[in-house]
Design brief:
Layout: H1 21-40, H2 51-59, H3 70-79, H4 87-120, H5 129-148, H6 151-157, H7 163-182, H8 188-203
Helix pairs in contact: 1-4, 1-5, 2-3, 3-4, 4-5, 4-6, 4-7, 7-8
């Protein structure tokens, strides 16, 4: 009789999701609060420096000054179709959206990272779950708010500029690397990190 082949290695069980529901709630609340702050302080029209040139480039899906900002131009061109206010305000709104999501992603990572840090410190292993959750939410939200409402980030998130989309793509890199470090065998997250880094370079060196 034919010999039964030896059993192969057991299938690798995929790890549980890195980001918990609590982390996503922190992301959502932080993003919303920051966007409201940006929306209420949006520049009503053109401002100084490259604002006029970039607004025209967005409106015509054209090519502003080098490096041309191709991803930013396509992204902001979508906002120019909003049937409200003037073109400069619409493009500034795109800055606010990108800035709010960038800071929300920071809050997401800090919320989850805080939990991992607490779990790795022996003195905090006995802490009640509700207190751990509260620390994660507060630390995540505060980190997002600190980035959002510091002088430079806030000033660029309420005008026609390219920097908030750069910040969003950078946060995409960090989120993907965070996820890849959590499960290194899932290399697609490393590839996504490389992709988002390429977006960073095309947007602003």
């Amino acid at each position: 009789p034919a010999k039964t082949p030896p059993p192969g290695p057991p299938p690798i069980k995929p790890p549980p999701p890195l980001f918990r529901k609590l982390d996503w709630i922190t992301f959502g609340v932080t993003t919303l609060l920051i966007f409201v702050g940006y929306y209420l302080t949006l520049a009503p029209d053109l401002t100084l420096e490259d604002s006029g040139e970039l607004a025209v480039g967005s409106f015509y899906a054209g090519v502003p000054h080098p490096p041309g900002y191709p991803v930013w131009t396509i992204y902001t061109w979508l906002f120019t179709h909003i049937p409200y206010a003037n073109v400069a305000w619409r493009v500034a709104l795109s800055s606010a959206v990108a800035g709010a999501f960038a800071c929300g992603l920071l809050a997401l990572m800090v919320s989850r990272g805080s939990s991992l840090m607490l779990e790795s410190i022996s003195d905090f292993k006995a802490i009640e779950r509700r207190w751990e959750n509260a620390l994660c939410v507060v630390s995540g939200s505060v980190s997002g708010m600190l980035l959002a409402f510091n002088g430079f980030m806030w000033s660029q998130a309420v005008i026609v500029e390219v920097y908030t989309l750069s910040a969003l793509s950078l946060m995409g890199v960090l989120c993907c690397l965070f996820r890849w470090i959590y499960a290194p065998e899932q290399r697609r997250y490393l590839y996504w990190a490389v992709f988002w880094f390429g977006i960073c370079v095309t947007n602003h060196q």
